[in-house]
């Protein structure tokens, strides 16, 4: 089904391939957490507004989300290894430019350059993993390791970012990406086999344009709505563009033989639930991280290093729970993993709904640890459900949709958190800052409840039946060869 060609003289070593692909996840995740810890320093040095801080994160995640689907298609057509290496190179260039940015606007622009590279990395890396580990159980274990690296990245990001920001300056947080990316490029050339889809789909520039307009207008409207006024012409225009673009995207893609976004994927209840879970979980995560980074440094007066240390409970829980979640998923216990994730996210957020400037650090540490359990448990079921049962010929697209959902969630989470906290974040050193972010934690608790509901919805008999119906629609030949898609036990 696939065109595989290893580099000359290089045997295919699955776990070396996995380790190489995990370097891209390390880069992208570490970059997000490093930037969050550095936000107060960037704000002080460049005179950034709250909207500027939001865009320094969302400028990256929106662009990644916009182009992940295109990157998956390009990888399936021109080669996953080649696309992966190009992404690593572009990410390195973007990191260098970010370290030189003289203004907030240029920092956001250079973050977008980084994002173009990021869009070519993680979904393609997941596609490489899916095509390297063909046994469902081995694949689930590999995805669990992938999730564990997410935890390691979370641990390294705040610690390294805090130390670099405090001792060298915030610009140095981007330098660390370059040697890691270069190492990944060399390892990819040596060990990662090239693979392509047997029947790559044609490019879809119109569909791609609709995706860009829909996501960019939605995030712009949410970020700028509070400042400009929700009834202002520009904000109303932004939301109108979003609704129109999203509607036209669905209508247009349904009529195409080979769409950029195959809406038939969403006839599978597990796949749709995985997408919604990804958006919800990562909206909670990004909003949580955004307000806590500012709270720890600007409200409590901690330095970047100390603030980084405070986030270690999240990272530690992630590292423990991600592999555990992968094993649960491999045994078919997806419902247990998702419900546990939702309850933990909800509980961790509820513990912070009464946050004050003098809240004991022990309470923060407990809340962060419980929240980290939720994040660790949610990642493997999202990814496994998204790619399992889909034709391997479309692995790049299926993985890209799952990753797009995460990035959309991150973008929305930061945008909504900044909007909910309102002027309280503008006056970060005021006594009202902690109270101003209470609504963010209440909303995050609600996200946890949604994940619990989706955990039940996506793992019942109805969900199983919908997944079985979708497989033959997407690839009749693959359905005959592979049999029914793996569906989690009810």
Structural domain tally: 2
Strand order of the largest sheet: 1-2
Net shape: globular
CATH fold field value of the largest domain: Growth Hormone, Chain: A
Low-confidence stretches: 484-490
Oligomer: single chain
Question: Termini separation (Å)?
Answer: 31 Å
Biggest sheet overview:
2 strands, antiparallel
Query: CATH homologous superfamily name of the largest domain?
Result: MFS general substrate transporter like domains
Radius of gyration over alpha carbons? Answer: 21 Å
**How much is the average pLDDT?**
83
Quantity of strands, as a count:
2
User: Which structural class matches the secondary elements?
Assistant: mainly alpha
CATH architecture of the largest domain: Up-down Bundle
Overview of this structure, please?
Helix content is 78%, strand content 2%. It folds into 2 domains: 10-204 and 256-482, MFS general substrate transporter like domains (Growth Hormone, Chain: A, Up-down Bundle), CATH 1.20.1250; 205-255. Helix 1 runs antiparallel to helix 5 (122-132) and helix 14 packs antiparallel against helix 15 (361-387). By secondary structure, it is mainly α. Mean pLDDT is 83; it is low at 484-490. It has helices spanning 14-46, 50-78, 80-99, 104-119, 122-132, 136-167, 172-175, 177-191, 205-228, 233-255, 269-299, 304-310, 312-330, 334-350, 361-387, 395-421, 423-426, 433-436, 438-457, 461-474, 476-482, and strands spanning 2-5, 194-197. The chain is built from 21 helices and 2 strands. A two-stranded antiparallel ribbon has the order 1-2.
